[in-house]
Specification:
Blueprint lengths: L1 E6 L5 E5 L4 H10 L7 E4 L5 H13 L2 E5 L2 E5 L10 H4 L9 H8 L1 E5 L12 H8 L4 E5 L2 E5 L7 E3 L5 H11 L5 E5 L5 H12 L3 E3 L5 E5 L8 E2 L5 H13 L3 E5 L7 H9 L3 E5 L2 E5 L9 E3 L11 H9 L4 E5 L10 H6 L4 E4 L2 E5 L8 E3 L3 H13 L3 E5 L11 H7 L3 E6 H10 L1
Length: 428
Amino acid sequence: MNALRIRGGRRLTGEWTVHSAKNAVLPIMAASILTEEETILTGCPVLSDIGYMGDILETLGCRVWRQEGGIHIDPQGICSYEMPDALSKKIRSSIFLMGPILARFGKAAVTFPGGCEIGLRPIDLHLSGLRQLGVEIREEGGMIYCDGSRMRAGSVHFDYPSVGATENVMMAAVLLRGRTVLHNVAREPEIVDLQNFLCRMGANINGAGSHTIVVEGVKKLHGIAYQPMPDRIVAGTLLAAAAATGGSIQLHHSPCQDLCAVFAKLREMGCVITEKEQTACLHAPDRLNAFQLLQTQPHPGFPTDMQVQMLALAAMAKGTSVVVENVFENRFTHAGDLNRMGANIWVNGRTAVVKGVERLYGARVSARDLRGGAALAVAALAAEGETVIEHAELIDRGYERLEDMLCALGADAGRMDTGAESAGRKTT
């Protein structure tokens, strides 16, 4: 187990270039098996989730390697339609391979996926969408067995605009003969990026970013070199970090058009934000103002992956803020850790009421999921004294060495081995 150590009280200033988005890279890696040719993905961060996806692809028979900052995927040797159980349970995004494996082999055997424990996140919508394409599915012994021998193009309607289900069914349909129309789909920018990637490979897809996606099946896809979109959540987290410290930063390769909801809340709190193409500049006041109400929603609403970072900002803002979580039921698990640092947060179900305090204090806290761990780092930057955030390996799922990003902007942050620290206490 490792931990982040952050000494608060330093204003963040300077520039940083945002890496490609984990939530774009993972489905694109899954889609790479839809061709027989090599795919190269550039600008990808070194993240544990991306590493796990590479391990899964290798288990299926692909060759995966990093070279000169790019991820190379050669799927020619893929020979298995059965997902590795142990690896699949490590990341939620392993489920993205169900659609591409079906398209490639006409059958798939996958385990229920793992990931951060932020809510139930059932995969019913994935299975329902595939069933509407004619896939026969049975669940047995913790495994999902899919028979796509009768899979055909057609109409698919989602009861809820799920990002993962939209991407999975879109990939399953790309090689089917005829037209597939997906209704009530998710509109997240990562879906647009997946469409762009597939179309560059030779697919015929349009409509991503709207409520309806149309897939005209093609016979074959080819390998390409592609740079996935920048990470809007990493960008938002760094902006929140600067806001917490009264800082002033400039982010390059920032998806400004996808951060409108985040920009709006930061401006409501008193930050000045300017946008120019793919550069975002933030200048924060000495103390933030509370926002009136924040409600998470599917895109283009406020992203649930930025909610807990804003909760941390509200904890130190002037006034009272209200946060309503409409996407996942367990997204307030870090309120208790923030309260240990001196915050005043009251949680009732999916609503949190935050009365801002003048000062937070360093404490020993624990990351329980990816974004919650990042939010604790945001709070620690503004806190008086030192904060130790245990289970920092969860943060590594979505941020490539968050401490290096923060230090480059002037923070006092580093990594420590809490296992070795515990062993030292036992022997002294």
